């Protein structure tokens, strides 16, 4: 797309431009207050995508009278294994346009389509919690999200957990188990890397997680649970407005037997409650998977996610997910790789799994 696109409205002209470093603070100020914006709209993701994963990012914003009135973050994922796509936002649950009104939203959407055509990608993908482009092909049955308010009273949150799951948390609390906020990734990354390998998923490079921790600062926190002094589970969470979003989590082989996952997420919820956060966003899961069932068992109701597509070179919407039968052999083989080999090869593959 060109550097700037103008549209005359009855009010004032609107221009669409690409974000530069001088306007990052204004971009984030808009994201902080716009109801449609999420943590994944923050400008820091552009830096993470480009510096730690090597992808080109196009962060479009709409401006009226010198003020940002809409944003659309886009990442260009181009790999031999998984194709060529423009996504809002890759490696993130939510994305799409966040704007002050429908005119601005349409202008940004049109600018993204123009950019997708110019780049000759396979497709443009916009991720949202609501249907925004009803005439576009849509994937709305694969992924769901789980969100639930946090009660101001800690004990009420405990009582809101269904009985079976609550019993697991209380059993864990009878052990020598505790959660600790980590200043670095020294305990998180080995736990996470081994955990995803056992599930047949290529791990991201440690540099990616270090970038998240550095770029988002106090809004990115690692909580690790120990049992009798041994780390058994760990999660990297994001904080946005009054929400906490546990995003990357894992556990050792011991975690299940000591209810390390149950205690991990309870301790995260308890801490968030005490710090004044009021929404627990359990994140995305694929329907029919273990994580889907785990979150439902916590009393969370699945909400559909709408991933909408503008097809450019592709003839149909993509099916890049572990439930696709053509990836089954790869997943089963990956589970049996030695951890050092998985950690070496994983980042080269995972950077394409946007």
TrEMBL record:
NCBIfam families: pepcterm_femAB (TIGR03019). The lineage of its organism: Bacteria, Pseudomonadati, Pseudomonadota, Gammaproteobacteria, Thiohalomonadales. This is FemAB-related protein (PEP-CTERM system-associated). Gene3D superfamilies: 3.40.630.30. It comes from the Bacteria. InterPro entries: Acyl_CoA_acyltransferase, BioF2-like_GNAT_dom, PEP-CTERM_FemAB-rel, PG_Glycine_Bridge_Synth. Residues 164-295 form the BioF2-like acetyltransferase domain. Signal peptide: none annotated. It holds the Pfam family Acetyltransf_6.
